[in-house]
UniProtKB/TrEMBL annotation:
Pfam families: ABC_sub_bind. Residues 1-17 form the signal peptide. The keyword Signal applies. It comes from Sulfuriferula multivorans. The keyword Chaperone does not apply. Keywords: Signal. This is ABC transporter substrate-binding protein. Coiled coil: none annotated.
Amino acid sequence: MVLLSAASLLLCAPSWAAGVLVLMSDKSPPYQEVADGFRVQLQHERPAVQVIVEASLERAEKAVTANTSLLVSVGMKATRAALALNTRAPILAVLVPKDSFDSLALPANEARRSISAIYLDQPYSRQLAMIRMAFPERRRIGVLLREKNRQKLEALLASARLQKIQVTGELIPNASEIIPALEHLLGASDMLLVLPDALLYNKNDIQGVLLTSYRYHVPLIGYSQALVRAGAIVALYSKPQQIGYHAAEVALRYLDTGDLPAPQYPKYFTVSINQQVARSLNISVPDEIELQTALQRREQEQ
């Protein structure tokens, strides 16, 4: 029995002796929360796995060891730094926008290296399902995008057709056209869906968008807790800690099987509702937890 147990331990040794290097783009709280959530969850499941967190990209090369089996890069800056490291360890990029990751230019020598991601974005199907559940009487959704994001609009329209929701999109050349296009769009919309776009919805412009939608009595659907605090009626997003937990699950799968899954949307998510905005617009809204639970149940049943 003792010999059999020892043999079993030896068979498991490559996974348990493995090391994971977490590279953060910087020391800002969201990146730190992802790293902390990842480390806590992974070491809860596999206490013997060494997890090194490095916030200085300049020291990243020295942090790579012979036992580094996986690189977890938090943010696009860290992902680019991970690609430049002198190691063949696979990369799991997290907290990265889908567009940025998908357009990442890989070095020629990275063709056979395993690289995957957990996107920052929420899938359109989840966002539209939330709107349908929370506001069943509001089926005309407006969305404002830059002209370069035409393919994104087409994907959203395809997802909306499956859920029998009408989506009207306005494509504009640059941020200076936001308000005129928005006023045209709001006249034919029951709700305004705002998608992440740092060039379109920056700190200077988002307040104008919120005020204009409020003036038209069209509630705004956001993508972050900050937008809910600013005046969006509801937002669907993944907290950094939730991304960290998801990343730990993917890392455990890799340590067990040696395979990274395809890039994917966040598994865990949060719904936040601004009750004050809902009352001001005289709109009935469900309970946050009930709505989030209903969305989770929907995805489990699919």
